[in-house]
């Protein structure tokens, strides 16, 4: 009871403020009021601010700003990823203009900077709520308060609260997840910082706090109807017991339900006055006089205006206060209820009601019901009496202050007396000031939802919205994927025009040739008493496959043994018998064509089979015996061993493989490590160093031609492999594809060392040379990579012209399931490379056999000449590339064992060893990524430091996905440890 009247103090205070200034009767007000309003006592600055032109201009600017922000943020959805990396690369928004970089935001640099600032640097996703705030404020100012979408203050409270709340909630998710995800991008720095701080303070209690914050915010701002109803009902029951006023239950129920509605209806009004009335006025009610004095002094004009709004008249009659008896008769229940029921539609009606209510009853006591006080907050005239009462109770030793106290309580009486006149006055009055309109409009707005049913709906919507919020977050989480290609977003894939157009081969196999070969085969077999049921031919680019179905009872082994005899009788090189052809139930005899057909690179790349191949690393090798384009996925092979005698087409084969990949992959997705001991074979690819090559940090040239460097880079690849495995492990995925998908979905935090992992294809053109000079040093890392690297996206293509066992050792061979052989000189070599004969039967010039496990496929390798490769490389090299080749981890020659296990000698230890130790001890978390993040180090260096810390006994051993244990508990203790090292 006590608090409710206080709420209205301000309104009551204002009214008497005008009283001493005029002794005019209500009639006189009609002429005086405009004058009074035009001679405000407010300060000069305030007047300036109220200049309608200024307000309209500011309003218009704010509306434009809201639209601009909306567009910038909308564009951010599509372009934010690209722009973010640009902004971060140039070192922040401030450097963006000077960097001269182009951004993709629809609104250019400013749009990109604004959205980056709002989303990334501030409130993340919550920043969207800034738009309705700006627009609402702008609209309100622009329309001079005549048009309101929603009370700005209310909107402001809600939006500001939820901006921070959403940001903190997302930040909390990021903190507890401890793995990078999309929300790390969308929570904003503020949310992340607050959530981080809260999490370290209260742990999971953060979420309780957030829920509590929403509830409290709801109580103050949104008002949960469901809650308030329960409380209202409880209070009602209590109240009906205690009420001094004897009301019938019927009346009470009516009042309650109306007041519940009213309570909701007043939302806007309450909110508008929320901070000032409910907080400051309530607090200051005990020293009411002071407040009266202060407020009158500070805002005399506003006071007048508000008084005018509340009553519909400017209360100028100074005599009236003395006329009114403070102890007026008690208002009967029925009258105020009527007053509430007659919801004011116009000023006249409103005032009429007030007059009836107050004047008719001579109000000075209000039934101490909650319902009634609720009504008061809306009904200006009924607000007065409780204030009077309260003031009476407050100690007032000073008579002057007592007088002041009386003054604020007098306006109702003014209205009472002026009531009939006021109605008339308003009809004659000059146009009402804007604020007055507002007051009149509000009841209309509120009356739209003035039924309990409507209020319930409104509340349900509020509750529903709150419930729906997490879902919205999840939906948005899926929206914004990281796209590695945006690093070089303007990169153009090579065009087929760069290659020679496919030439229509005139060298077709003639019918005569086919018939002649058929005759020879049938006769030869008949000669060895092998009957043939049927024979058919499939013409390939190099060879024609004759498929025979032997008569029943013929042993296949018999035919297989006749291979040489058939070759002799056909008098042709390169006859290969496939008995039986797997899955066909036939026996195949491959006979080289008299005139072979060249398979051009463009003809295979132009096929749909290659263009639409859903493969990670598609390679169009050439055409099979049945003239089909053969496309294989290098990632599935997963490593390829190539062999072939000199001049049989190995180098062309490697170029075909590299070109296929260059045609299909983006520079951000694929990197080549090239080792070319022959120095000239792969040199053409030097040009695409900044696009597609990977190299060691200190390498002069990306393509390795030196054996020592080859050893370094192979070991470096092993380190890269280990690092990638660590990343996969911490990401909880099994292979590079899953990892990259997770990373692109922003579920892995780059700050914790995660990054998009491009495929790496290691190409060695001539293994024999390396094996001769370095042996085990080469074999070791190759075998290791071949064994383990497939899951982390490193694939090997190793070629040699000498497929002997000292080059293709058992260890290497065992880990290369896919083998490709061009023509070799001996059956032994064929067996070494393919574990089968046949490669010695090939006819050269790209005729090859591909073995993938059990299958052996004869393929005519496509042909790409040096010119074409050069053009292709030029085309790529002419485009903007990365600033350097893809950096592989540094390779360090084996280091001498550390002395005494103290984390290495002082010289060996990293410069940041001690700092890292303090960091881990402070956080009590033995995490490499913590060192990486806090000390801004690369993974390698951070990894070395943590190893040194482990060796020094400061942290425990590696524990898988968990952080290492920190053995030193306090920084003091650490200093002692560091001194002893
Ligand atoms: N797929 C092919 N189609 C047509 N001709 C080919 C094909 N592959 C190779 N040739 C021919 O064979 C020649 C030698 O090929 P390539 O240089 O690839 O052999 P190589 O095995 O790399 O030899 P080396 O080991 O001596 O470098 C080419 O110049 C070309 O004339």
The percent range for helix content is 55-70%
In CATH, what is the homologous superfamily of the largest domain? P-loop containing nucleotide triphosphate hydrolases
Number of strands: 15
Structural class: alpha/beta
> Within the largest sheet, what's the order of strands?
6-5-14-13-12-7-11-10-8
Q: Give the helix tally.
A: 45
Mean pLDDT: 70
Largest sheet: 9 strands, mixed
Beta-strand residue fraction: 5-15%
- Low-confidence segments, given as residue ranges, are 1-44, 239-428, 430-477, 896-904
CATH names the topology of the largest domain as Rossmann fold
Measured on Cα atoms, how large is the radius of gyration?
43 Å
Shape descriptor reads: elongated
Domain module count: 5
Instruction: Please write the CATH class name of the largest domain.
Output: Alpha Beta
* Small molecules bound in the structure, each named once: adenosine-5'-triphosphate
CATH architecture of the largest domain: 3-Layer(aba) Sandwich
Could you give the distance between the termini? 72 Å
Describe this structure in words.
There is one protein chain. This protein is α/β, with parallel strands linked by helices and 981 residues long. The protein folds into 5 domains: 44-212, no CATH class; 223-479, no CATH class; 511-592, Threonyl-tRNA Synthetase, Chain A, domain 2; 601-878, P-loop containing nucleotide triphosphate hydrolases (Rossmann fold), CATH 3.40.50; 913-980, Arc Repressor Mutant, subunit A, CATH 1.10.10.10. It contains 45 helices and 15 strands. The strands form 3 sheets. A 9-stranded mixed β-sheet has the order 6-5-14-13-12-7-11-10-8. A 4-stranded antiparallel β-sheet has the order 1-2-4-3. It has a two-stranded parallel sheet with strand order 9-15. A hairpin with a 4-residue loop joins strand 5 (618-624) and strand 6. Helix 13 (225-242) runs antiparallel to helix 14 (249-265), helix 21 (347-359) packs antiparallel against helix 25 (411-428) and helix 43 (928-934) crosses helix 44 (939-951).
């Amino acid at each position: 009871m006590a608090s409710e009247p206080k709420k209205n103090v301000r309104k009551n205070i204002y009214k008497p403020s005008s009283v001493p200034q005029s002794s005019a009767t209500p009639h006189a007000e009609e002429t005086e009021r405009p004058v009074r309003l035009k001679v405000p006592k407010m300060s000069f600055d305030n007047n300036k601010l109220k200049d309608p032109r200024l307000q309209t201009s500011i309003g218009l600017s704010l509306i434009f700003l809201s639209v601009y922000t909306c567009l910038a943020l909308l564009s951010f959805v599509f372009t934010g990823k690209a722009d973010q990396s640009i902004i971060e690369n140039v070192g922040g928004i401030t450097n963006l203009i000077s960097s001269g970089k182009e951004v993709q935001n629809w609104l250019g640099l400013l749009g990109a900077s604004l959205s980056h600032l709002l989303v990334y640097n501030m409130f993340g996703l919550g920043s969207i709520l800034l738009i309705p705030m700006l627009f609402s404020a702008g609209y309100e100012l622009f329309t001079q308060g005549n048009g309101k979408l929603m009370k700005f203050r209310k909107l402001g409270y809600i939006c500001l609260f939820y901006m921070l709340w959403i940001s903190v909630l997302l930040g909390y998710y990021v903190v507890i997840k401890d793995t990078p995800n999309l929300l790390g991008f969308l929570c904003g720095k503020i949310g992340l910082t607050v959530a981080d701080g809260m999490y370290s303070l209260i742990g999971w209690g953060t979420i309780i706090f957030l829920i509590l914050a929403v509830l409290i915010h709801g109580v103050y701002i949104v008002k949960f109807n469901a809650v308030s109803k329960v409380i209202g009902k409880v209070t009602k029951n209590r109240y009906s017991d205690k009420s001094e006023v004897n009301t019938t239950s019927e009346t009470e129920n009516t009042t309650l339900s109306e007041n519940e509605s009213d309570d909701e209806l007043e939302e806007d009004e309450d909110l508008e006055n929320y901070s000032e009335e409910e907080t400051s006025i309530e607090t200051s009610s005990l020293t009411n006089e002071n407040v009266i004095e202060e407020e009158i002094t500070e805002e005399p004009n506003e006071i007048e205006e508000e008084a005018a709004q509340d009553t519909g008249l400017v209360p100028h009659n100074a005599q009236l206060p003395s006329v009114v008896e403070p102890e007026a008769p008690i208002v009967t229940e029925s009258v105020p209820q009527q007053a509430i029921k007659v919801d004011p539609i116009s000023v006249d009606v409103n005032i009429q009601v007030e007059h009836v209510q107050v004047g008719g009853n001579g109000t000075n006591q209000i039934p101490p019901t909650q319902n009634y006080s609720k009504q008061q907050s809306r009904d200006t005239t009924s607000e007065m009496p409780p204030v009077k009462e309260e003031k009476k109770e407050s100690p007032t030793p000073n008579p002057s202050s007592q007088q002041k106290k009386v003054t604020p309580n007098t306006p109702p009486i003014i209205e009472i007396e002026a009531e009939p006149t006021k109605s008339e006055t308003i009809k004659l009055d000059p146009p009402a000031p804007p604020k007055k309109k507002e007051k009149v409009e509000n009841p209309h707005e509120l009356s739209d939802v003035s039924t309990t049913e409507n209020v319930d709906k409104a509340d349900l919507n509020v509750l529903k919205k709150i419930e729906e919020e997490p879902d919205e977050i999840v939906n948005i989480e899926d929206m914004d994927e990281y796209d590695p290609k945006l690093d070089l977003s303007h990169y153009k894939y090579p065009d087929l025009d760069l290659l020679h157009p496919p030439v229509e081969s005139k060298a077709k196999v003639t019918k005569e040739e086919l018939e002649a070969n058929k005759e020879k085969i049938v006769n030869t077999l008949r000669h060895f008493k092998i009957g043939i049921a049927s024979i058919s031919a499939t013409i390939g680019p190099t060879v024609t496959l004759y498929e025979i179905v032997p008569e029943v009872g013929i042993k296949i082994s018999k035919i297989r043994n006749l291979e040489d005899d058939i070759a002799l009788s056909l008098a042709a090189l390169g006859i290969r018998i496939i008995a039986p052809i797997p899955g066909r139930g036939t026996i195949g005899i491959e006979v080289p064509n008299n005139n072979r057909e060249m398979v051009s690179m463009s003809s295979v790349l132009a096929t749909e089979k290659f263009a639409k191949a859903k493969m990670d690393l598609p390679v169009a090798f050439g055409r099979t015996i049945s003239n089909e384009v053969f496309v294989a996925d290098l990632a599935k092979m997963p490593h390829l061993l190539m062999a072939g005698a000199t001049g049989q087409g190995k180098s062309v084969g490697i170029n075909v493989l590299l070109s296929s990949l260059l045609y299909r992959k983006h520079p951000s997705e694929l990197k080549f490590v090239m080792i070319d001991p022959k120095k000239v074979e792969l040199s053409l690819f030097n040009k695409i160093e900044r696009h597609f090559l990977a190299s060691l940090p200190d390498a002069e040239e990306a393509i390795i031609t030196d054996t020592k460097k080859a050893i370094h880079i192979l070991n470096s690849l092993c380190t890269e492999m280990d690092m990638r495995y660590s990343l996969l492990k911490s990401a909880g995925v099994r292979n590079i594809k899953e990892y990259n998908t997770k990373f692109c979905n922003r579920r892995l935090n780059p700050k914790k060392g995660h990054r998009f992992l491009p495929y790496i294809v290691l190409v060695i053109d001539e293994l024999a040379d390396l094996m001769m000079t370095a042996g085990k040093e080469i074999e070791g890392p190759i075998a290791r990579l071949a064994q383990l690297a497939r899951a982390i996206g490193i694939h090997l293509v190793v070629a040699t012209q000498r497929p002997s066992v000292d080059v293709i050792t058992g260890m290497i061979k065992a880990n290369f399931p896919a083998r490709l052989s061009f023509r070799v000189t001996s059956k032994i070599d064929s067996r070494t490379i393919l574990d089968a004969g046949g490669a010695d039967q090939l006819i050269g010039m790209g005729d090859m056999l591909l073995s993938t496990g059990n299958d052996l496929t004869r393929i005519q390798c496509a042909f790409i000449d040096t010119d074409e490769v050069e053009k292709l490389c030029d085309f790529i090299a002419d485009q903007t590339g990365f600033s350097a080749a893809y950096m592989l981890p540094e390779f360090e020659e084996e280091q001498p064992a550390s002395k005494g296990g103290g984390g290495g000698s002082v010289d060996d230890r990293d410069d940041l060893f001690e700092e890292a130790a303090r960091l881990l001890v402070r956080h009590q978390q033995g995490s490499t990524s913590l060192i990486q993040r806090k000390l801004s180090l690369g993974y390698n260096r951070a990894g070395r430091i943590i190893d040194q810390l482990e060796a020094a006994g400061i942290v425990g051993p590696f524990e898988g996905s968990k952080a290492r244990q920190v053995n030193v508990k306090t920084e003091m203790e650490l200093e002692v440890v560091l001194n002893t090292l």
